[in-house]
Design brief:
By secondary structure, the chain is α/β, with parallel strands linked by helices. It has twelve helices and 20 strands. The relative contact order is 0.16. It binds guanosine-5'-diphosphate. The site of guanosine-5'-diphosphate (GDP) has 20 residues, from helix 1 and strand 3.
Length: 429
């Protein structure tokens, strides 16, 4: 299989960073194809924690080509900071290991200002955006007023586009959002600096990927967020502003759907979500607090506490169907140690009817009730397990039951943050 996609099957934060880092060892190229620095991966290698927001998680394997594809929105300030931090730790030893699409859109300071001001004005009913300007940058992309990475290298064109956009954004910021105007000179000067910093990496990544496929390179597509945050298929409007499904890898990176051989869905052994929106299996009690503490469920990007709850098979089943998931990487099984009994949401009840898949409208999402099944828990620490047979029988039963409920085999099982705390059942490539 020359290419695989890794995609989140819940509301994001499934532990994709660790899984991509692991699989990247067998890949030649690792590609991000959507989103921006609203995604935050936490990786632990040799006991050292690295948080990546933009650069693909393959970067911790020297020599891998990391591609930031056309479907992304990139905040150059954050990217430059991330490149510097990686360099300080000895990564990214060669400029050719990072390729940034000239077609990816730039997040501008006015995007961040608009994002934050809107979220503040919405008050308690907010969407829970990360305030990083991702949504407003995608709005401009779709309105065809966005500024792209390649535009940085056209001095006159960049100046004109910035002038035009800033006139409009400043009027909006001042008149409607009650914010101060932003300075053209300040932004212009800063982005000139980013132009020089990003010049070595900017590339026609679509052509480079085509060449990589032609040469038989193994390509790993790294999804961000999760299926239920997909702008079309998630819990709209409490979603992200891009498509998060496996299919988006094709459009966002510029490769044909047929080029992608395998789809790996990442699912956490329980459920979390950050920010507002429906969450039928939420535990708003001491058990939820325990999951948050034991699973360290705080946003990698924002530090926000995550809402925690039981594994929701309806959600993961939906994600598997949407993305054509071939198998699951199940993470954080170790966090459930000591909780007995365990519950799993196997279906929803909506207006007196049982359903195996979620509804499509916000109103219906608010009315669904979880249908639970109980399973025995286990007390043993799982962190040292290296094979399925090392797991206590009740932990194996739990994994098998989840797999049966969602209709996909488990390819990989993660029982701790370290690379070696992983049980691999199937080779991905
Ligand atoms: P991502 O954005 O999908 O990568 O998710 P997060 O940023 O929430 O990363 C998951 C967090 O859990 C990171 O701190 C990982 O080091 C950690 N982690 C990943 N897999 C496991 C696991 O199997 N067990 C435990 N205890 N922690 C894990």
């Amino acid at each position: 299989m020359p290419a695989a996609v890794v995609t989140g099957t819940q509301w994001g934060d499934e532990g994709k960073g660790k899984i991509v880092d692991l699989l990247a060892a067998d890949a030649d190229v690792v590609v991000r194809f959507h989103g921006g620095n609203n995604a935050g991966h936490t990786l632990v290698v040799d006991g050292q924690k690295t948080v990546l927001n933009l650069v693909p998680a393959g970067v911790l394997h020297p020599g891998r080509i990391c591609v930031m594809g056309p479907g992304m929105v990139i905040d150059p300030e954050v990217l430059v900071g991330e490149i510097d931090a990686l360099r300080r730790r000895g990564y990214l030893g060669d400029d050719r290991w990072l390729r940034i699409s000239e077609q990816a859109h730039l997040i501008m300071p006015y995007h961040r200002a608009i994002d934050r001001a809107r979220e503040r004005l919405r008050g308690p009913g907010n969407i829970g955006t990360t305030g990083r300007g991702i949504g407003p940058a995608y709005e401009d992309k779709m309105a065809r007023t966005g500024i792209r990475v390649g535009d940085l290298f056209d001095e006159g064109g960049f100046r004109d586009a910035l002038e035009r956009n800033l006139r409009e954004k400043n009027a909006y910021l001042q008149a409607l959002l009650g914010e101060p105007a932003l300075s053209f000179d300040d932004i212009h000067e800063r982005y000139r600096g980013y132009r020089e910093r990003l010049r070595p990496f900017a590339a026609d990544t679509t052509a480079e990927l085509r060449a990589a496929f032609a040469a038989g390179r193994r390509v790993l597509f790294e999804g961000a967020q999760g299926a239920l945050l997909d702008v079309d298929h998630g819990t709209y409007p409490f979603v992200t502003s891009s498509s998060t499904l496996a299919g988006a890898a094709s459009a966002g990176a510029g490769v044909p759907p047929r080029a992608i051989g395998r789809v790996v869905g990442i699912a956490k052994a329980y459920t979390t979500r950050v920010g507002s929106g429906p969450f039928p299996s939420e535990l708003a009690d001491a058990l939820g607090d325990r999951l948050r503490a034991d699973g360290d469920e705080y946003g990698a990007t924002t530090g926000r506490p995550r809402r925690c709850g039981w594994f929701d098979a309806v959600v993961v089943r939906h994600a598997i169907a949407l993305s054509g998931v071939d198998g699951l990487a199940l993470t954080k099984l170790d966090v459930l140690t000591g909780i007995d009994p365990l519950r799993v949401c196997v279906a929803y009840e909506l207006d007196g009817k049982r359903r195996e898949f979620p509804p499509g409208t916000q109103g219906a999402w608010e009315r669904v009730r979880p249908v639970y099944e109980e399973l025995p828990g286990w007390r043993e620490n799982l962190g040292a397990a290296r094979a399925l047979t090392d797991l206590p029988p009740d932990a194996r039963r739990y994994v098998d039951r989840l797999s049966a409920l969602v209709g996909a085999p488990v390819m990989l099982l993660s029982i701790g943050p370290q690379r070696e705390q992983t049980i691999r059942l199937v080779d991905i490539f």
